[in-house]
């Protein structure tokens, strides 16, 4: 037995057990090696007129023997001589493919696409195999040689028989253990599944002997009670697609083909809403095919959802979901990216230089944003359906970045306009603002119908201003992170960002001078009344004041607003969280309508010294205002009892 040409057996152990994290990729590596061997022979046929090999003669064959516990990968490629077996397999980390690729760099492209580069992929077979036999016959040679090793000490090379040029790699699988079931590789379904997963787009046919069933002809003398009989047979079947759809010209692929690829590869029953095809050449050459789904997967907003695009290098899948290719706010996008230029690590499972990935990701993000903007502007119905499914993630992208992503995402957002009674963009809201409106107003709550009836919303709309009615839990947090919205000004124009204001927040600055003066006079004249109401309500409110937004007898008698950074809606959402929302409270203000008839009743009770009535009415107004806001009552029973007293 010959020893491996390395000073330490630890290096071999590293190759087998430490580089790769997933045992099933051994088949990917062996098929990639076979593809390289076939590519080398095809290249030789292009450069040497004496080599007569047609591309249709080149193939890879995968098979298994359940009884012998073997998996075999065979190719009709260039094969290896005894010396090449010694050099390529006996020397760890020597890559014949890399050597070939370097020597023929100018030919790498459409005709030749060498995959290997490190010379260690072959040794992944020892992750699942207790012995590996390689029988190879070089093109133009009459001799075949067999390399055998258990992956521990060394190897043997002996003369062998092979009918034609090419290589057979036979992996004798390890015995099953408590936590390892190697029998999964001894089935037609198991091997086909791995081929389709990792090597579906290898450029040469990958063939298997597949078991099939067919009905036997009905005998002529069969009676009326004849039952159909069937026979099992095997047939050679090409199990890979070979030509990836993302490398075909967009003009050569129909929409139906794109849709079928999406539904088949990404397991969706609905056609995608949009298909995005990208081909880039330059410092980085890559192809990308991305899809915007029609509907959100059930687990999109769960912690278990994993975003990412499938990453391929030279048509071989490297990562099923490469998270770095998509920002979190575009996590719903599905698709593939394929590039020969990526610098992979030794296991081809991760990347060495993330700068390459970041460059691709940045360009893909622009493509996705452009497609969404195009849908928004030219197919509004489709965009509104998309936003219903995925808009929450765009808003969260702004909130989670503390507003840093608002430049990329804010113009994609949609909100319901109380005035227009339809979904509008922030640009559309700003364009429709009347002269003199300096802020974008919004209200946050559970439903559009409920928000539209709120006194604080009606008060703003009575001033002639529109209000955005926001019904998702992330809306308030998104607007808090944005603080304002504005588009980059044209050359020579001043950039103006409109602040975002919750209509239930403190001072909106909408009152006229007369309304402001009247409120100040009412507050001064009834200072004792407001003090008594504050005492009655205690810590429930930070103060009781005269409202400038409720200024007529037809308006509501009172409303609840909030001072400070925590709004009423934020308090409600945070209180529903399992870990820590209970202690976060808004600074509530009870605003009283000094023009409402109830205020006269309150004044009369205060002047008569009826402190109980003032306290009771203060509690009733406060709880009524909470109900209108959709806030929970702290003591519903007490509120019901107070209502009952009034009904006696």
Automatic annotation (TrEMBL):
Residues 22-177 form the Histidine kinase/HSP90-like ATPase domain. PROSITE patterns: HSP90. One of its GO terms (cellular component) is cytoplasm. It is found in: Cytoplasm. Pfam families: HATPase_c_3 (PF13589), HSP90 (PF00183). It comes from the Bacteria. One of its GO terms (molecular function) is ATP binding. ATP binds at residues 29, 33, 75, 80, 88, 95-96, 117-122, 167, 348. The keyword ATP-binding applies. InterPro entries: HATPase_C_sf, HATPase_dom, Heat_shock_protein_90_CS, HSP90_C, Hsp90_fam, Hsp90_N, Ribosomal_Su5_D2-typ_SF. The keyword Cytoplasm applies. Residues 573-648 are annotated as: C. Its main location: cytoplasm. Transmembrane segments: none annotated. CDD domains: HATPase_Hsp90-like (cd16927). Residues 1-348 are annotated as: A. Keywords: ATP-binding, Chaperone, Coiled coil, Cytoplasm, Nucleotide-binding, Stress response. NCBIfam families: PRK05218.1. Homodimer. Molecular chaperone. Has ATPase activity. PANTHER family: HEAT SHOCK PROTEIN 90 FAMILY MEMBER. This is Chaperone protein HtpG. It comes from Slackia faecicanis.
């Amino acid at each position: 037995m010959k020893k491996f040409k390395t000073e330490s057996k630890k290096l071999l152990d590293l190759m087998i057990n430490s580089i790769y994290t997933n045992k099933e990729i051994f088949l990917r590596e062996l098929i990639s090696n076979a593809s390289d061997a076939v590519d080398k022979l095809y290249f030789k046929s292009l450069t040497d007129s004496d080599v007569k090999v047609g591309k249709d003669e080149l193939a890879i064959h995968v098979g298994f023997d359940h009884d012998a516990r073997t998996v075999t990968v065979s190719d009709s490629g260039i094969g290896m001589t005894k010396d090449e077996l010694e050099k390529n397999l006996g020397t760890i980390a020597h890559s014949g493919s890399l050597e070939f690729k370097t020597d023929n760099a100018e030919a790498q492209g459409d005709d030749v696409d060498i995959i290997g580069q490190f010379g260690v992929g072959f040794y992944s077979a020892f992750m699942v195999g207790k012995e590996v036999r390689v029988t190879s016959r070089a093109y133009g040679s009459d001799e075949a040689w067999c390399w055998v090793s258990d992956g521990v000490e060394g190897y043997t090379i002996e003369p062998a028989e092979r009918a034609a040029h090419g290589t057979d790699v036979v992996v004798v699988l390890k015995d099953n253990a408590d936590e390892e079931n190697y029998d999964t590789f001894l089935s037609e379904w198991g091997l086909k599944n791995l081929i389709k997963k990792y090597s579906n787009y290898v450029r040469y046919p990958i063939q298997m002997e597949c078991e099939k069933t067919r009905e036997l002809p009905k005998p002529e003398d069969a009676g009326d009670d004849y039952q159909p009989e069937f026979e099992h047979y095997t047939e050679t079947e090409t199990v890979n697609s070979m030509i990836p759809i993302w490398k075909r010209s967009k003009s050569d692929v129909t929409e139906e083909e794109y849709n079928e690829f999406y539904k088949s590869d990404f397991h969706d029953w609905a056609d995608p809403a949009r298909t995005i095809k990208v081909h880039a050449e330059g410092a980085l050459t890559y192809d990308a095919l991305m899809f915007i789904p029609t509907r959100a997967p059930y687990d999109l907003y769960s912690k278990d959802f994993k975003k990412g695009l499938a990453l391929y290098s030279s048509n071989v899948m490297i990562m099923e979901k490469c998270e770095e290719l998509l920002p979190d706010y575009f996590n719903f996008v599905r698709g593939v990216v394929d590039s020969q230029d990526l610098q992979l690590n030794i296991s081809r499972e991760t990347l060495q230089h993330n700068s390459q990935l970041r460059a691709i990701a940045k360009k893909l993000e622009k493509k996705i944003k452009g497609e969404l903007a195009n849908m928004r502007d030219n197919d509004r119905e489709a965009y509104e359906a998309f936003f219903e499914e995925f808009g929450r993630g765009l808003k969260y992208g702004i909130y989670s970045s503390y507003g840093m992503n608002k430049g990329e995402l804010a113009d994609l957002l949609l909100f319901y306009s109380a005035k227009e009674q339809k979904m509008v963009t922030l640009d559309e809201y700003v364009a429709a603002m009347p002269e003199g409106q300096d802020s974008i107003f919004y209200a946050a709550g559970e439903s559009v119908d409920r928000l539209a009836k709120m006194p604080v919303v009606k008060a703003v709309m009575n001033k002639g201003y529109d209000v955005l009615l926001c019904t998702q839990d992330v809306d308030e947090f998104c607007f808090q992170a944005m603080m304002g919205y504005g588009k980059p000004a044209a050359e020579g124009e001043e950039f103006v960002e409109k602040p975002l204001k919750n209509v239930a927040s403190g001072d909106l600055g909408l009152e006229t001078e007369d309304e402001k003066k009247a409120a100040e006079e009412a507050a001064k004249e009834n200072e004792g009344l407001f003090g008594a109401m504050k005492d009655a309500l205690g810590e429930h409110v930070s103060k009781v004041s005269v409202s400038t937004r409720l200024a007529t007898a037809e308006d509501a008698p009172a409303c609840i607003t909030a001072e400070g950074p925590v709004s009423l809606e934020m308090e409600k959402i945070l209180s529903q969280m399992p870990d820590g929302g209970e202690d976060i409270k808004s600074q509530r203000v009870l605003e009283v309508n000094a023009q409402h008839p109830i205020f006269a009743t309150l004044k009369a009770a205060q002047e008569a010294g009826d402190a109980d009535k003032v306290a009771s009415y203060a509690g009733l107004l406060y709880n009524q205002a909470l109900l209108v806001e959709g806030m929970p009552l702290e003591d519903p029973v007490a509120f019901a009892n107070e209502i009952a007293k009034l009904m006696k």
